[in-house]
Structures are given as C-alpha cells and as structure tokens.
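Tip: read the tokens left to right.
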C-alpha cells in the first residue's frame, strides 16, 4: 500500500474526486453535487478543498468552510463534505483528511471544528465519532451537529 497524503484540489485531480464511488446505501447521506458546486462558487476564499491520494490515485475528497462571521456558529469552521472511495474506506484516508482540516482550522485561529450530518445506520456518525467529533445539537433542519474542540 502506498503512503496516503493530502494535496490541494487541482485541475489534475478534480475528475477523479468527482468519480469517487460509494458503498451501497451511502448515497442518501451525501448532499447533491449541485450543493457542492454552489459552495465552491459562493466564496472561494473561504472554501478549503483537498484530496487524499494513495500514491497517485485520488481516494478521498474533503471540503471545509471557514467564515468567522457566519450567522450560525456551527458554520464558522465546518467540515462541509467528505467522500472516501468505497474501496479505500477503512484504510485511513478519511482520518488523514479530517486531521488536515483540523490543522487548517487551528492555523486560521478557530477553537472548534463542526460537522453537520444526517443520522442513520449507514451514515457517517460512527466515523465522525471515531475521529473525535461529539454530537452537540441539531441544525434547524434536524441534522446532527457535532464538534471537535481544538
């Protein structure tokens, strides 16, 4: 197995990032692609996007959003999206991606990082708990809000 490493999303990795596969049942926990596109276009200075590579192969994509003036406190430093290819799940790519976001949040001076997700048996909650997030409430849409104190 090649070493995992994080790189900025680029023209050379975007197609692979958009082609990551999911395990059966995970589709219902992923926001539509149009949400993802809108987030990147909305404010590219606040949007942080990276890929995790295993050797030269993209195995994960992560997007975070940093806005100290966001109207909702849980959106000021937020892990917005994480996709780990079905074949790469369980091999550390997600953990490395989250650690990279945590480090970026620290560098930017934030004291906590949040994530918002749908609860469900096949959903991401177990992963988020394993990497250190703890549920702290609900969004206005009934989703779980979880945080890591930095």
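Filled-in amino acids:
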């Amino acid at each position: 197995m090649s070493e995992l490493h994080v790189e900025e999303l680029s023209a050379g990795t975007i197609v692979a990032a958009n082609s990551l596969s999911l395990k059966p049942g995970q589709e219902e926990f992923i926001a539509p692609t149009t949400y993802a596109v809108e987030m990147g276009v909305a404010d590219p200075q606040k949007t942080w996007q990276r890929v995790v590579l295993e050797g030269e192969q993209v195995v994960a994509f992560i997007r975070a959003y940093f806005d100290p003036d966001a109207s909702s406190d849980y959106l000021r430093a937020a892990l917005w999206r994480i996709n780990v290819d079905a074949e790469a799940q369980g091999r550390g790519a997600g953990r490395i991606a989250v650690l990279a976001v945590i480090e970026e949040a620290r560098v930017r001076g934030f004291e906590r990082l949040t994530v918002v997700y749908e609860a469900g048996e096949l959903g991401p909650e177990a992963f988020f708990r394993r990497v250190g997030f703890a549920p702290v409430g609900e969004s206005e849409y009934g989703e779980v809000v979880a945080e890591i104190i930095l």
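The chain has a mean pLDDT of 87. Residues 14 and 51 are 9 Å apart (CA to CA).
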